[in-house]
Amino acid sequence: MSTTTRTPELIYVVEDEAAIARLIADTLEKFGYRAELFRTAEAFFHGLRHRVPDLVVLDLGLPDMDGMAVLQQLRGKHTCGLLVVTGRSDTYDRVMGLEMGADDYVVKPFEPRELIARVRSILRRYPGQVVMPADPAQRVAEFAGWRFEPGSNTLINPAGQQETLSTAEAQLLSVLLAHPNHILTREQLLGGRDVSALDRSIDLRISRLRRRFEENPQHAKLIKTVYGAGYLLASTVTWS
Questions:
Q1: Residue 1 and residue 81: Cα distance in Å, rounded?
Q2: Which stretches are labeled DNA-binding (predicted)?
Q3: CA distances (Å), origin 154, targets 85, 147, 160, 172, 173
Q4: Which CATH superfamily is domain 10-123 in?
Q5: Three-state DSSP class for 146?
Q6: Contact 94/75 with Cβ under 8 angstroms?
Q7: Cα–Cα distance between 179 and 175 in angstroms, integer?
Q8: How would you write 63-103 as a 3-class SS string?
Q9: Residue 41 CB-density burial (10 A; 0-12 exposed, 13-18 middle, 19+ buried)
Q10: What is the CATH number of domain 136-239?
Q11: Helix, strand, coil fractions of the chain, as percent rounded to 5
């Protein structure tokens, strides 16, 4: 009988407060993850050049670079889990983080088990929710006359014109395309993250995607609102 041993996921902790960074790292290691600490954005980007982790725990208040700028650069180049940790009470920062591609957030101070729960939730959806062909060159979705290339976030309209989606929009479209003609709740579209009554990030992303397809939000034909349930992509999708 053969057995397999799980390789612990690698998590980068980008946090300039030593005590908090150590607490996060100790908590992660206690639950079986590998953690590497970075005190500055510069050190973090240097680490990324050597290896991309499974997940990044990112503090928005870094000493050498604004956390939002770090988030934007990370999402522009890499696909990995991203958990924002912030001491800021402003809801705007949290919504902006989600809009720019963060998977979830925790606010300081937080309970270690809350951190682990959110880490586990994010890691369950990586390296991705979308089942695509094994050959990367064939990962192209065709639907309702449109083409979408997830590898480059490229959306091509029926006339052949193309544009590049933001990471957040591309992630959302990928999930919709993976489950065509199925109602997806806001929680499912956020990958299982709990959705509060004030969290409108999915609704904002849906609205932006609809504008890409020139849909009237009140009479959308491609991305439909199923009131009280969620959203549905009304189209046949072919992966080639």
A1: 34
A2: 138-235
A3: 30, 8, 11, 13, 11
A4: Response regulator (3.40.50.2300)
A5: strand
A6: no
A7: 7
A8: CCCCHHHHHHHHHHHCCCEEEEEECCCCHHHHHHHHHCCCC
A9: buried
A10: 1.10.10.10
A11: 35, 20, 40
Residue 15 carries which DSSP code? -
Q: What is the percent of the chain with per-residue pLDDT over 90, rounded to a whole number?
A: 41
- Alpha-carbon dihedral angle through residues 35, 29, 85, 20, given to the nearest 10 degrees: -100
Q: Please, are residues 240 and 197 in contact by the beta-carbon 8 Å criterion? A: no
Regions in the chain scoring below 70 on pLDDT: 1-6, 88-90, 125-138, 190-200, 217
Domain parsing of the chain, residue ranges: 10-123, 136-239
**Residue found under tokens 């500055």:** 40
Residues 62-90 pLDDT 10s: 999 998 999 988 987 877 889 998 876 66
